[in-house]
Design goal:
Blueprint (H helix, E strand, L loop, with lengths): L1 H4 L6 E3 L3 E4 L3 H13 L18 H17 L5 E10 L2 E11 L1 H4 L1 E8 L8 H16 L4 E7 L3 H10 L2 E10 L2 E11 H7 L5 E3 L5 H6 L11 H8 L1
Parallel strand pairs: 5-6
Antiparallel strand pairs: 1-2, 1-9, 2-3, 3-4, 4-5, 6-8, 7-8
The structure holds coenzyme A (COA).
The site of coenzyme A has 22 residues, from strand 5, helix 5 and helix 6.
């Protein structure tokens, strides 16, 4: 079965309202349809790669291709998990968690979007809380980062609500204009102090965090878990 070769297909994150998991082919098509309908007002651009400027059909295809790309070029030292977000079985958006050199650095970054009609109801906060739980509770992360352009108060607010702190700025060129990105960062201690969303993780192979708590030596493969297994699969 496919899941034997790619165990991450079994991973589930559940919050009171949401389920986050890899989508099936047809669900990926639904996610693409959602992007085609709209992710934000056209007068602003919340992404450093302005993929939402594409016409709807190409924008939808780019969602599909980007999903396959990140599965196809998965590597233990450079991975991105694009989790579809479901509310009552209906796909509402995408939550990404990614890392480079995770086994050594133990830091993840996140990115996300919701279909326009699903925004402003707390889903963005709940899905970010889900992947923070995966990072800190599931993968024993030390820190997580995010970022939002200065004209994106909702993304910034999601981060600060969850306990992120300012981490400087970056000046980027987007749509041929210099734009300021406010970087944000959350430590394990801040996550523990602010967490207030119930999150459960299913089908993540027991990870070194648990082994260490039990006083076992985790060796040099620590924090790779099923992420490394998937890369080999
Ligand atoms: C960013 C995004 C994922 C957030 O998801 P969401 O479900 O809309 O966010 P939530 O409802 O959980 O929280 C939004 C918060 O921002 C606040 N907010 C919204 N607009 C605001 C404004 N103009 N000024 C200040 N705060 C604002 C909301 O009041 C809410 O905070 P509260 O819970 O304290 O009231 C979603 O809006 C989205 O997909 N936007 C377009 C794509 C995008 O920007 N992606 C992120 C790129 S960094």
């Amino acid at each position: 079965m496919l899941i034997d070769h790619w165990p991450l297909l079994g991973l589930r994150l559940n919050t009171p309202r949401l389920e986050l998991r890899l989508p099936s082919g047809e669900e990926l098509a639904e996610l693409a349809d959602l992007a085609a309908v709209g992710v934000h007002e056209p007068d602003r651009m919340p992404f450093s790669v302005p993929w939402t400027d594409l016409p709807p059909t190409e924008r939808a295809r780019s969602v599909v291709q980007h999903h396959w790309l990140r599965l196809g070029n998965w590597a233990p030292d450079d991975w991105a998990l694009n989790l579809a977000v479901f509310e009552q079985g209906r796909i509402v958006g995408l939550q990404t968690i990614a890392a480079r050199n995770y086994a050594a650095v133990r830091e993840v970054s996140t990115g996300s979007w919701l279909g326009l009609r699903h925004q402003g109801r707390g889903i963005g906060t709940e899905m970010r809380a889900a992947v923070l739980h995966l990072a800190f509770a599931g993968l024993d992360a030390a820190e997580a980062t995010s970022g939002a352009f200065i004209d994106n108060p909702s993304s910034f607010r999601v981060s600060t609500k969850l306990g992120y702190e300012p981490d400087g700025v970056e000046r980027l060129v987007v749509r041929d204009r210099v734009t300021v990105l406010r970087r944000l960062r959350i430590s394990r201690a801040r996550w523990e102090a602010h967490r207030n969303t119930e999150v459960s993780i299913s089908n993540l192979t027991p990870l070194p965090a648990a082994a260490r708590a039990a006083g076992q030596d985790t060796g040099s493969v620590r924090h790779s878990g099923p992420f490394a297994a998937a890369a080999r699969g």
